[in-house]
Amino acid sequence: MGERMWNAERRFRGLLLAGFALFAASCAEVPQKKEDARKEDKPLVFPAPPDEARFIFERSIYSSADILEADKNAALRRALTGEAERGGEGVGKPYGVAVRRGKIFVADSVGSAVKVFDVPRKKFSVVGTDDPGIAMPLGLDTDAEGKLYVVDATAKSVKVFDANGKFLRAFGGQAMFSRPTGVAVNPEGTRAWVVDTGGVDKQVEHRVRVFNAKTGEHLFDFGKRGTGPGEFNLARDIVLAPNGLLYVVDGANFRIQVFQQDGKFERAFGSVGRSPGQFARPREIAADKQSNIYVTDAAFGNLQIFNEKGEVLMFIGTRSEADQPAKYLLPAGIAVDEDGRIYVADQFFRRIDIFRPYNRPPTRPGNSPAPPPSVRRPPLRPCTRGAAIPLPRSRRLELSLPRFPRKLPGVCRRFPFRRRRSPHRLCHQPRLNTRHCVKGWGPIWPENQTPAHWAPSRFREFTFAGSNN
Amino acid sequence: MLALVLLLPGSTISDITTTKHNMARLVGAAIQGREDNQVCVYCHAPRARPADPAPRPATLLWQRRGSGTFIIYNDMGRLDLNEAPGIGSTSVMCLSCHDGSQAFGITRQTYDHPFGVPYRGNIAGTAATAVAMAPVQDSDLPFKTAHTRPFADFRPAQSAIVGNHRVWWVPTSPDSVTRRKTDLPLYERNSGPDGESIPFVECTSCHDPHNDNVAFLRITNEQSRLCLGCHDK
């Protein structure tokens, strides 16, 4: 009996192999492409070895086709036929970038709108198409509620939209600004700092104007044109770091200036030059949870990362005329999300690059979004053997084929929806070799090694919703 | 001697210090420019020369390798003092500021005069033709149809070797054999077959960011003189 079953299993596996062979043969016309694809699969880590890896390239977004489900087929078609056309709606000229819970907001200064790429929910939307519209969006920021604040350089105002993209209000106006460029809002959404770049022929309007973000009331200003501490020459962008300090890109003084929230000057770092820690054409700025500061530089074609004191840590990206990951000609907007992912926009290639911290699992379209901080899942931990829940014998038989490797290289993570029956129980099915996960914990699979990859047809029906990321 | 004459006070010669491209112009009455009084650094990031007693570049705390200097765009038009040429054309340098924030924005999508395109004046019939025209033909840019003119509608460009670079220009006066300040420079890209040199039209072919002409034009456009420098119509 046992031997017969073993034979059946072997036959099945033989068939499977034959199927793979057929599939491989059908792809034989495009070996070059496969070779290229494999090269591209090599992960891009930063810094490069032998330094300790801190970030890994995750994906590039050119258009809605890169995140929408329907266009997955288009991606496959492109891969198989060499079709160059990339459908979907892209960004005419990206400027500012902001991210909130997986939603990537990109200011399209030519397209007069903010394009929203919702990677986890596989949705694409456009903000600013309804009245009053956004003539020329530049800097962006969001608050904790998900409200979006957009600098409109033509209307010289900051426009506020709710989390669904509905216009709420605007503040500022033609009399208030000369050339508004960057905006920072505190998480409570009560205060907004807006950079007025000023322009080369303006004397006074090189400053930061502070508003009550709820009422639009103008509170106070700080800074004027100059090169001294607390003075600006063509300031470009501003960010409020979690340490409570404001970091302002002082463009034509080639430095980052640090202020308290009331405008009191703290310190400055950076100088003009071509070396790490210096600036030639600094543009946008972002901060992560540790208050590390990220600055794009259009001349260097990279982003530099500083700690909160202004010591340079590393840089990502090089100049290149090739449209490839981590290669830039005109990097502009930058944002860092709750998980520490970096989002960089390049205006020349009209592309958004995403880098994730090296120790974080990847995100893919359709994955569950990053949960709010209050219900954040526990961190990954090593698997523990021996506490599996055996399923009824009938279910075991149903799932006995095909045989997987003894141990898939997954790690255990607590399920967010423990009451859902099927993913919970299936994960503890012994033949899936997941019994090294203790009760209440399930496997998450590294990219390209999910059960669906091992036996696509057999396991399509089983979803591991929420188990990844 | 000539330099002395040019520097005489009251001279009508103007330079970048009187233009909008002097970012230090209105910085403050007491401070003219940066502390070191430089006005070039706003577009041409200074190199650290070995002879300079400059402080050592900052140590990257997370990245021990890769310090040194970054390559920037081709801010000198490929006359880069025997160093590795920049990556990205002079037009990219213009775009790094002209993005709608501190100065008006430019984009390749508008129906404007094309830039970053091969000059059509002297590539007709050469091996480089197909390669040079490929970016225009394959692009989805609006000027594909609006601005693609026959080869015959362009005047031939001239070239010479300066230093170890080939330099291209379109003469604006018919008797010009050597390059003059009033000629329209083209910018070499080695994008032809076997790295062949192909002249490209960039922003700075028609605009000189250092002068104080209207719209920073290289020469006056009275009776379309500037346009007719290249276009033979």
Task: Describe what you observe in this structure.
In chain A, 14% of the residues lie in helices and 32% in strands. Chain A has 469 residues and is of the alpha+beta class. In chain A, strand 9 and strand 10 form a beta hairpin. The radius of gyration of chain A is 25 Å and the shape is globular. Helix content of chain B is 16%, strand content 10%. A five-stranded antiparallel sheet of chain B has the order 1-5-4-3-2. In chain B, a hairpin with an 8-residue loop joins strand 4 and strand 5. Chain B is globular. The chains are: A alpha+beta (469), B alpha+beta (233). The interface between A and B is large, with 66 and 51 residues.
Q: Structural class, from helix and strand content of chain B?
A: alpha+beta
Q: In percent terms, what proportion of residues of chain B is strand?
A: 5-15%
* N-to-C series of helices and strands of chain B: HHEHHEEEEHH
Largest interface: A-B, 66 and 51 residues
Radius of gyration of chain B: 20 Å
β-strand number of chain B:
5
Instruction: For the record, give the distance between the C-alpha atoms at the N and C termini of chain B, rounded to a whole number.
Output: 43 Å
Shape of chain A: globular
* Mean pLDDT figure of chain B: 74
Mean pLDDT across residues of chain A: 76
Estimated helix fraction of chain A: 10-25%
For the sheet with most strands of chain A, the description reads: 5 strands, antiparallel
- Major sheet of chain B, described briefly? 5 strands, antiparallel
Overall SS class of chain A: alpha+beta
Uncertain residue ranges of chain B: 1-12, 29-35, 140-146
Major beta sheet, strand line-up of chain B: 1-5-4-3-2
Shape of chain B: globular
So what's the oligomer here? heterodimer
Which residues of chain A sit in consecutive blocks of at least 5 with pLDDT less than 50? 1-40, 368-441, 454-469
First-residue to last-residue Cα separation of chain A: 42 Å
Whole-angstrom Rg of chain A: 25 Å
